[in-house]
Amino acid sequence: MKSTDALKFKDIKDKDIKELQTLLKEKKLKLFELRLQLKTMQLTDFAQISVVRKEIARINTAISAKSVKREVQK
């Protein structure tokens, strides 16, 4: 995975909460698979783990921003 493949916040912020939650599940599964590969000595690019962790953080930030925005509008 190259750094250009990583999700950018501007790509994430336009999605709704359902899409973000689905994407979050996919990324958490990907992180689990990477950690499993790391433990079984199959992972060659260790930087993938930190990339996926940062993507998860971006998604969580977008979800919390949208939920705060929704509460303010009520």
What does this structure look like?
Helix 2 (17-39) packs antiparallel against helix 3 (47-73). It is elongated, with a radius of gyration of 14 Å. 73% of the residues lie in helices and 0% in strands. It contains three helices and no strands. The chain is an all-alpha fold. The chain has one domain (8-73): Orthogonal Bundle (Helix Hairpins), CATH 1.10.287.
Short structural description:
This protein is an all-alpha fold. It has a single domain, classed as Helix Hairpins.
Keywords:
74 residues, mainly alpha, Helix Hairpins, 73% helix, elongated
> Which stretches are poorly predicted, pLDDT < 50 over at least 5 residues?
none
- Kindly report the average pLDDT value: 89
- Secondary-structure element series: HHH
End-to-end distance:
41 Å
What structural category characterises the helix and strand content? mainly alpha
Shape: elongated
Class, according to the CATH hierarchy?
A: Mainly Alpha
Q: What is the total number of structural domains?
A: 1
Radius of gyration: 14 Å
CATH fold type: Helix Hairpins
Helix content: over 70%
Strand percentage lies at: under 5%
What is the number of beta strands?
0
Major sheet description? none
Label the CATH architecture: Orthogonal Bundle
Number of continuous helical runs? 3
